[in-house]
Amino acid sequence: MIQNNKMTHTELIERGAKWLKNSGIGFQRFPLVITELRTFASEIPDIIGFNNACSVVVECKASLSDFKADQKKQHRNFVNKLGQMRCYLCPVGLVRKKDVPEGWGLLYAHDNKITIEVEPPFHSDDGIRWAEYHILYSIARRALAKGFMPKILEG
Asked: Which of 31, 43, 35 is closest to 13 using CA atoms?
């Protein structure tokens, strides 16, 4: 049953980013959380989180048609995907557990919390880190161009 199917994509991203940073998956919290960052990487994740051990991508889906369209995206078939863990975040009941693609987890956005419905498996493909370096490099390059790097490196 869908509890709140009126959540927008933007609301899901905001809630998911906050949840990932504060609660995270299992015992993993992700202090570096970035939303919709455009880089030269093969995809633009709605949310990507990093910690010192791993990364997670969260794709937010506010409609079933958006979820189905996501399955057809070309970069979903490449080896160099982002995220050692990958999840979909949607309103409760929008995506059924049985419809979650292999290798992905499922998060439900309730009215006042987010729950893990399908635990995301851990992926250790070498190509994942290669693709993520594009994102991390882009962040560092932007910080350098804006003059933030000296302040960042002060610690």
From this structure: 35
Tell me the per-residue pLDDT of 59-103, one tens digit each, with 9 for 90 and over.
999 999 989 887 776 655 554 478 899 999 999 999 999 999 988
Contact 104, 88 (CB under 8 A): yes
As a whole number of angstroms, the distance between CA 151 and CA 23 comes to 28
The type of residue at 65 is: S
Q: pLDDT tens across 18-44, in order?
A: 999 998 787 788 999 999 887 766 678
- Return the structure tokens found at 139: 């962040």
Radius of gyration of the chain (CA): 16
Does 4 have pLDDT greater than 90? no
Q: Is 37 helix (H, G, I), strand (E, B) or coil?
A: coil
Give the pLDDT band of residue 3 (cuts 50, 70, 90).
very low
Q: Closest Cα to residue 54, out of 27, 89, 28, 23?
A: 28
Q: Per DSSP, what are the bridge partners of residue 49?
A: 33, 56
Contact status, residue 100 vs residue 68, Cβ threshold 8 Å: no
Strand order in the sheet with 32-35: 32-35, 47-50, 55-60, 85-91, 105-109, 114-118
